[in-house]
Design brief:
Layout (H helix, E strand, L loop, with lengths): L5 H8 L9 E5 L6 H8 L11 H9 L4 E11 L2 E10 L19 H19 L5 E2 L6 E2 L2 H7 L2 H7 L1 H10 L3 H10 L10 H7 L5 H20 L10 H6 L5 H14 L5 H19 L4 H15 L3 H9 L3 H10 L8
Parallel strand pairs: 1-3
Antiparallel strand pairs: 2-3, 4-5
Length: 336
């Protein structure tokens, strides 16, 4: 079984039948109407997930204005949410590289430990234990069993750093690259692995990109807490990732950018405004509030609004006020 699909399989087996969709949400729809997208998907709220994701995406790709599409099911707050994402013709595009073709593998003990970690994290999640401490620049779960395994990863990253790098850049096996992208983040000297992780942000596999983002977010937290380490992470690929067709890419990119702009950085906010403002607006309008809040807050930072005003608008249900303010900031660059 692929390691990167293990959590999904555990989730699917918990259902006696195909899960039903509670919410359908969208992004990337500007020339294309929601009605056309719904017709192409062929389901409505309350229906089971599409029998074939590939067939539904093929129908979406058949819409004249659509260059490419992506469907992604997300289970959150006891609801099944189906995200339909479009890249319309002429829209910004997030490039990913072709998969490498090498045959290198990590030591089997490392792969087994990672598999044990995924299983332990899944068990913890079923018990609503999902919190992690990132202050050391690497994830340490609130769940003791999961944390015990994570605490063995720094030794792997120390003793096998060259192999982790080689697999991350050259292995044809996406599972191996995903393991490498996670464990390499536990290297004691975080500056040594930033380039490797930023390289992995454009990997062909979504699981590799996800693990690279997780690792970089933890390192970002350490960089904010301990400036003596002089850790510098470029925002460029996170900003470009906001234009990804993948909901997971977009969601994790926002989380990374929220950390990078925790103390407002005009240069980063200007880049987001110039490269990915519309994608961020789409995200801030999502129906699931826990998914919409981080991009909404990031929009508030782009607009230069006091956080208290942004929070007040959210509380009164007026997200469009912040959207309008962010759109009005186009062409305006703030000085440091």
């Amino acid at each position: 079984m692929r390691i990167t699909t293990l959590l999904l399989c555990l989730f699917v087996r918990a259902y006696a039948q195909v899960p039903r969709v509670d919410v359908i949400d969208f992004y990337g729809l500007h020339k294309t109407t929601e009605a056309k997208v719904r017709e192409a998907i062929g389901i409505k709220e309350g229906d089971p997930l599409p029998a074939s994701k590939g067939d539904a995406e093929e129908r979406l790709d058949g819409i004249t204005s659509v260059a490419e599409s992506h469907l992604e099911a997300v289970y959150d707050a006891k609801k099944m949410i189906l995200y339909a994402g479009l890249e319309e013709r002429g829209a910004p595009h997030f490039d990913i590289r072709e998969a490498p073709e090498g045959d290198m593998k990590l030591p089997e003990v490392m792969t087994k430990e990672y598999r044990s970690f995924v299983e332990a994290a899944a068990a913890a999640a079923r018990n609503n234990i999902v919190a992690e401490d990132l202050t050391q620049g690497q994830a340490r779960s609130a769940d003791p069993e999961t944390r015990k395994i994570q605490d063995r990863f720094p030794l792997f990253a120390t003793d096998h750093l060259a192999e982790l790098r080689d697999v991350l850049r050259n292995s044809a096996d996406e599972d191996q690259r995903a393991v490498a992208a996670y464990i390499i983040g536990y290297a004691p000297n975080k500056r040594d692995v930033i380039n490797d992780l930023q390289y992995a942000l454009k990997d062909a596999d979504a699981g590799v990109r996800a693990n690279a983002t997780r690792s970089l977010v933890a390192i970002e937290v350490l960089a904010k807490l301990d400036k003596t380490q002089a850790i510098k992470i470029s925002p460029t690929w996170f900003i470009e990732m906001l234009n990804s067709l993948s909901w997971s890419d977009q969601n994790r990119a926002v989380m990374a950018l929220m950390v990078l702009t925790d103390q407002p950085d005009p240069s980063i906010l200007d880049q987001i405004r110039e490269r990915a403002l519309q994608s961020l607006i789409d995200m801030a309008r999502w129906k699931t509030l826990s998914h919409a809040l981080p991009p909404y807050l990031l929009l508030g930072r782009i607009a230069g609004l006091p956080e208290a005003d942004v929070q007040a608008a959210w509380s009164r249900g007026d997200r469009e006020w912040v959207v309008t303010q962010a759109m009005g900031s186009v062409g305006k660059k703030r000085s440091k």
